[in-house]
Amino acid sequence: MQHYNISMKKFRYRFPVTIIVFIIIGLAACAAAIAFNIYLCITEGTAEAVNPALPVVQYTLTFLVSIAAGAILIGILCRSYYGVGDKKFRAALGFIHSNYSADDIESLVLNRENDKLTVCLKDGSCLNIIIDKEKHTDFVQAVLDENPAAEYSIISLENKPDDKKNEK
C-alpha cells in the first residue's frame, strides 16, 4: 500500500454541477434505504417469516449495500484530486488511485478555447485534468518542477493557422 506523501501538491477535482447533484441524490437514496430498512426491521421483524434467517440476511445486506454505496459516493466527492510531488503524478477518483512516474509525462497541453488541460504520457495515453482553471498554471508549474523535460504548449485562437477571423 502506498502512503500519501505530505510534500505532494494536491489539486482538487472540479465536478460539474450535474455530477454533484447526482451524488447528492445518490446519498439521499442511500439515507432513504437505510431509514426504510430500519422501519421494516421495527415493524415486521422476523416473526412472520417462514425462515427467520432470511429477513436477517435481507436487512443486513440492505444496510451493508446502502452504507457501502454512501461511502463510495462520499469518497468520490471528498477524495478526488490530482497530486504532484516526489517525482510522482497521481490521479485519484474517490478510492481509485492511478500512480505515474513524473518522468513518464511527455507533455502538457492547455487549450484556451475550451479551458482543457491535458497531460500526455510517453506510452501515448492522455489524461484530461479537470481542475479549476485558475489552478492550471499552478498545476503546470508543479509538474514542470517534478519533470523539467516535459513540454508545455498552449493552444489559443491567436496561434491557430486555419482561423478565418485572423485572416482579415
Nearest-angstrom radius of gyration?
A: 23 Å
Q: End-to-end distance, in Å?
A: 59 Å
Strand order of the largest sheet: 1-2-3-4
Could you give a short account of the major beta sheet? 4 strands, antiparallel
Total domain count: 2
CATH fold-level assignment of the largest domain: Signal recognition particle alu RNA binding heterodimer, srp9/1
- Helix share, percent: 25-40%
Q: Segments where pLDDT lies below 50 for 5+ residues? A: none
N-to-C SSE string, H for helix and E for strand: EHHEEEEEEHE
Q: Number of DSSP helices?
A: 3
Please state roughly what percent of the residues sit in beta strands, choosing from under 5%, 5-15%, 15-25%, 25-35%, 35-45% or over 45%: 25-35%
Mean pLDDT across all residues, rounded? 87
| Structural class estimated from helices and strands | alpha+beta
- Tally of DSSP β-strands: 8
Please identify the top-level CATH class of the largest domain: Alpha Beta
What CATH architecture of the largest domain do you see? 2-Layer Sandwich
Morphology: elongated
